[in-house]
Each structure stands twice: as structure tokens, then as C-alpha cells.
Amino acid sequence: MNDKKLYDCLVIGCGMAGSVIARELAERAGKKVLILEMRGHIGGNTYDFKDKNGILIHGYGPHIFHTNSKRVFDYLSRFTTWRNYSHEVVGDIHGQLLPIPFNLNSLHLAYEPSKAGRIEQKLIDTFGFGSKVPILDLRQQHDPELVEIADFIYKNVFLYYTQKQWGLAPEQIDSLVTARVPVFISHDNRYFQDTYQGIPAQSYTSLFAGMLDHPNIELSLNSEARKRLRLESGNVFFDDNPFNGTIIYSGPIDELFDCRYGRLPYRTLDFVFETHEMTWYQPKGTVNYPVNQDYTRITEFKHLTGQVLNERTTIVKEYPRAYTGADSETPYYPIQNPENLTLYERYRTLIAEFPNFHVLGRLAEYKYYNMDAIAAKALELADTLIG
User: Fold this and answer.
1) Topology of domain 3-86+200-263+334-386, CATH
2) What DSSP string runs through 9-51?
3) Residue-wise pLDDT tens digits, 316-332
């Protein structure tokens, strides 16, 4: 069987990026699409399944869908109904649970009423009610009480957590990363304020199964693209045959070229799942541990999924560390700094000589994306390719 005659498009990776673009090319453009997925399952890092205790868990850490894009929400809603869920996170600050991101409710829990009231008014006067202030901006204020609250948040909410998560001091991290954990001048305890929020009512895996259910899509699991693709002098070979169709690559861009310039740095996570004989382990879906413990957070899945099981519950603890490239590891967070971005651009330049080769997604673009942003990028790329 000669694959080059069977497929118009090759899609590498079956996460959000690959699945959306595959469905679009198959459905809107009528293309025959082959998806190569190195794992044994669909859905990428959003893959979920029931553990041996019957509890639906997210195998690669918690994923909560949220977006302000009606197009993305409507698109994914074709393949799932939604459980109405707004994520709330608290941080264990020396035994006291405070809403995270730090907000005005956190302020009133951390300080006595009169002082909290004064600081609240100063925050509103300085930044405006409803604003989200990066912690590094708050630390630049001159008012003594604003400096005090900034230092409290910095030391107790941000500093150690960031060091655990990234293995770096906060000043070494790109401002786009630090801005992801702002101080919220609001009484809204929701972790996200997007218009559309929720969890697929059945599962993320069923959402992806619906998306990939199209006669023009063929899926090959446990299929490592690097062993089947060869890029050579502007030509693409698939299974040793010339391939002139469209290729969408969502895997690690450095590994596509055998890391010839060096490996792009990432942070990875070790997940420790535990099942406990109790109805609830903690009061919210996620509890962060910014000042103690080696792990960064604990997530309890029943809060997210709405499963009703009174006798047991499953949690996961997350331990960040450096990514080494071992087969057992997953690269999660690109470490974006000038040196690493320069290295990425060297790899990106290698792609330029292949006109029908497109990179898409967090690993291929060396950029952190939320799920909705990945879906939006895939839809935009489809618009461009389909015209």
C-alpha cells in the first residue's frame, strides 16, 4: 500500500491543534487526512479516562475549558455538551486557604478588617476595580501599605511557587508568564473570567472522538512521525516515498530535526495520583501550595467532572522539574527567554524551505497556549489553507 497516493494531508499529533485542523481539512476542504499520533490515545494532554476506582481523571493534569471566543466555543460545542463549571483555586498560605489569584477576598482574609479596607480602596484608586495587575507591577508602587501587600503576595503567593514551577527566579521569567498569575482587584473568586467556561459533560476524550469521526480522517496511533517522515533538501518523504501534500506538525520542533542545534528547554511535571476513601479531599477543585510542600498543587477531579461517588475520591499532586527528553517525560511549559527563542528561530528557519509544511501548537511553536487559543489558531490556519 502506497500512502502517498492515499492522503492529501498529514497531521502530526492528535491533540487540540491536530484534531481541529484535521477535521477542518477533512470536512470543509474534502481532503483525505492521515493523523500520526505517537501515543496510544487521542486528545493529547487533555486525554481523560476512568481510573481503576471508576473516577474520571485527567491523565496529564487538570484541564478546564474557558474562552471569550464564540467561534471556538460554538465549534467545540458541535462535539460535546458542557458541564457548567467555573474553576476556583485556593492557596494554602501557612495553613490558611486564600483565593488564588490573590483578590480582594484574599486581602480581607489575610488582614484585619480596617487595614484590609484601606488597602482595598488604595488598590481600586490606583488600578481600578476589576483590573488584573501583574505582581511585578504592584511591587513598583510607593505607598507603604501597597508595598506591604505587594511584598506579602510576592513572598507568600508568587515567589516560591514560581521557583518550583520554573526552576528560576521570577525576574528571569518572561513578563507574559508572570502576567498569567495577576493580582485581581475584584471580589470574583473564579480563576477565569471568560464568557464561556465548562468541562465536557461526558469527557474530553469523547469530545475528540466526535471531532475525529469523519470518513476523510484516518488515525494511526502509536505512530512516531520522526520514523516515517524525512525532510531533505526541500523535499518531504513519507515512508520513503515523496509526499507533496500538506503537512501540519504539532510535535516538538527540535526533535523533528534530531535536536541538531541543541534541545529546546521545557519544564515537565511528575504526577502522583492518589485515591482516598472519603467523599471530598479538599474544598475546591485545586489547592495551590506556594509556601510549603515540594509539589505545586493538588487537584481533586470530582469537583471538575461532577461525578457523584460518596465513598472515594482521586487527587493528583504535581511536581515540576526540568525536561530532559527522556521517553517517559512530556514537555509541558516552554521556557521563553531570549536565548531559547533564538534557538527556536534556528529550528523555525529549517522549516521555511518546505512550502507545504506548517507548524501549529505549543510544541511546534515553542509557545504556551491555552486550549481555546490552540483551537482558534487551528481554525485560522484552516481558513488560510482552504481559502
Assistant:
1) Rossmann fold (3.40.50)
2) EEEE--SHHHHHHHHHHHHTS---EEEE-SSSSSSGGG-EEE-
3) 999 999 999 999 999 99
